Amino acid sequence: MSKMTENGMMSRAKVLTIDTINPTVKKVEYAVRGPIVQRAVELERELSQGMKKPFAEVIKANIGDAHAMGQQPITFFRQDAKSRACRILQSCGGHSMGAYSASQGIDSVREDVARYIERRDGGVPCDPDDIYLTTGASDGIVTMLKLLVCGEGASRTGVMISIPQYPLYSAALAELGAVQINYYLNEEKCWSLDIPELQRALDEARQYCNPRALCIINPGNPTGQVQSRKCIEDVIQFAAKERLFLMADEVYQDNVYADGCQFHSFKKVLFEMGPEYSDTVELASFHSTSKCYMGECGFRGGYMELINMDDEVKAQLTKLVSVRLCPPVPGQALMDLVVNPPQPGEPSYDNFIKERTATLSALAEKAKLTEQVLNTVQGISCNPVQGAMYSFPRITIPEKAVKEATEKGQQPDMFYCMKMLEETGICLVPGSGFGQKDGTYHFRMTILPPSDKLKILLDKVKEFHQKFTQQYS
Amino acid sequence: MSKMTENGMMSRAKVLTIDTINPTVKKVEYAVRGPIVQRAVELERELSQGMKKPFAEVIKANIGDAHAMGQQPITFFRQDAKSRACRILQSCGGHSMGAYSASQGIDSVREDVARYIERRDGGVPCDPDDIYLTTGASDGIVTMLKLLVCGEGASRTGVMISIPQYPLYSAALAELGAVQINYYLNEEKCWSLDIPELQRALDEARQYCNPRALCIINPGNPTGQVQSRKCIEDVIQFAAKERLFLMADEVYQDNVYADGCQFHSFKKVLFEMGPEYSDTVELASFHSTSKCYMGECGFRGGYMELINMDDEVKAQLTKLVSVRLCPPVPGQALMDLVVNPPQPGEPSYDNFIKERTATLSALAEKAKLTEQVLNTVQGISCNPVQGAMYSFPRITIPEKAVKEATEKGQQPDMFYCMKMLEETGICLVPGSGFGQKDGTYHFRMTILPPSDKLKILLDKVKEFHQKFTQQYS
């Protein structure tokens, strides 16, 4: 364990090395902040040190980080919320944001969340006791998965996730040592979720694990589709029939742009299906302050609502979250402002509506623009961005480039995105980080940059793709 | 799996029940927010509904929650920090707290933390790349433990923790399925850490697991001792000899009250021991915005510094923390203010020093008062509260009470604390939640209440203990 070095000192092998680290940690992958982003940060540093690059700035289109992309914070959340702030502070220990809150979250915030959900779902009742405030939606999702994981070998918990998926899911499942069950979204039908594909994935998985949960992201990340009411009903029926715990990631619930599309919450549809379903199907729904028109990612605010959860399990959950004491109180306060926005007659109302409408309209335009421009490029085809904050176009990568990537031990779309970053300063996430059908390649690009910047960005992507295709043909 | 109910509807067994939940979750225990605190919350509700109780208010002396206890936030952290706030915002994406930061934390904050550590440790160098900002110290501690856990059966990772301990450690180890190795602090010698006891615990544990890490809390929680420089040196030597990863929980580094006591950071001592140690011993040190004179718990700010960590492991760590995107940005900003306080000549300096000194002096007085009053009670003996924020007195519980508790399936000190809560409204945490030598009983009480309230509280504790002892004698 120790050896003498040249100068006669004892050198001890490290306790913690890559060979002795928790093996589940090694399996974790999270492409949204992977090697491409690390290189982008280096490039920014190099630029700031005066190194010459073929571009003047790095554009981080890899992540749904609205404020970093220049979206102005909604004024209400930052300045106009004094009377609400007083009410929130009244609920804080010592009337200070610096005090711990209840582990489940501040009571009055959970009450406001419950009323928000009731309004959103046309009166379907919501019990504040079913609301848990979280550190962003990610925290809630990981916590729920943690509860679900058990068993060994063929009875190990399996969790169904869409492919493409948001890599928080695969990362959490890897860390928990659970079995990831892939069901593929149908790219040809605008990334729709088809029940026969769910059934196929489930039936195959039952041979080697114990499938217990089905995760849905609606509106979709990275794929931007918005599920129809019919589709949600079918999914709920499927979950009921197959006895699966439903996890509905609904953080983009305000981000719906396409004509004819509408956000339907899983909870509302569940309750409209009658007591056969609404009394039995277990559902967790997740929301966040980070997305929608707010984009307040840095505050790490969020909540989850739990429907039909067993009481003893809920007690275990409450105990589990208490170990981390409480979600950040500023994030809880911000969540409260989100679910309790200005009402007609209140001083901030007009400005709030103006800013919210402007933000969402701009996103809708940018969604359309992105789809249109990308579809003019030969070798790129992009589904409509019906909702959320990303386009996920399919790209054709020439054989020669695939070969060169493979020789380098890289995924072809990683190779493509790394080259784009080096040549244009544009930071995207390769489709391989989200999962995709074998032999297909994609990238995820956020639609968040301001319109003028987005146009330039899309032109650069177009130009790069053409050059890349030529170079490798 | 399904059965017909009386009204003919199909009833499905739940997917997630107490029998099918993740078994590691069931093992998690966290007494600081356990049944006593749940009952305290109920009692508060009952009081507010006008129910008659033998007390007018519930005093939550269970947790180190300074602001909730009436400690005024330090003005600088809330009002006077404009120029620093501008600098922090300059480092934020889109100059907004609402943007995600780097997963490791904002660069400029990590630089300020590094300079703070250098000042604290008399010039021992600190590299900002070794600093990871965290969501409170708890987050960093759990993340480090996660990296360390591997192996099965007799090669499963074991982690040494003090008994009594802060139950975050036992909870995290239970959840990770690691082996908890208890070493006992010496109550007779003011909760000192004795090396022979470390050796005993380690030697025994080597028979059934693979001990890889040693956790130290200094100043101690719940025990309030402050380790001497000599003791820290001995611990480092022990860790080096036995090849253990050192985890130093130093969140109370400003909370030292007793004459002759001084805080020594593990890092400083390590570097003073020369390169044989400073080049090899792996150390993680944790700090937080929640304790010391700040008491800003609700912001969930913190950092960890990693010494001699393997580079590949660091890359894994960076990847792992990126899955949660970033620690809350308001907490990062507050951490920056803590490590970068007003300097002589700056407008806030005088007031900051006044407030900080007043807060720490008041704590020192309350530490002394608590020890003195508790030691006047027959059947209670309390070590000096040298540091941190709690007293952890030993209590004598009469045989008859032990018997009644056992019949109820309760730990005797849980029985004692629950009775105290019901009769006096005082919420303490039973010693059994922290671990203690068999047959001994304790409780943890924070010294945070304002002096006048603390006196009343201590008198009530005294009175209760006398009554309880009489009742069960």
Query: Could you report the average pLDDT of chain A, rounded to the nearest whole number?
Result: 89
Query: How many distinct folded domains of chain A?
Result: 2
Distance between the termini of chain A: 54 Å
The radius of gyration of chain A is 23 Å
- CATH class annotation of the largest domain in chain A: Alpha Beta
Helix segment tally of chain A = 17
Helix content of chain A: 40-55%
The CATH architecture assignment of the largest domain in chain A turns out to be: 3-Layer(aba) Sandwich
Strand content bin of chain A: 5-15%
CATH superfamily of the largest domain in chain A: Type I PLP-dependent aspartate aminotransferase-like (Major domain)
Domain Aminotransferase class I/classII large (chains A, B): 94-460
Keywords (chains A, B): Aminotransferase, Pyridoxal phosphate, Transferase
Pfam family, one (chains A, B): Aminotran_1_2
Pathway (chains A, B): Amino-acid degradation; L-alanine degradation via transaminase pathway; pyruvate from L-alanine: step 1/1
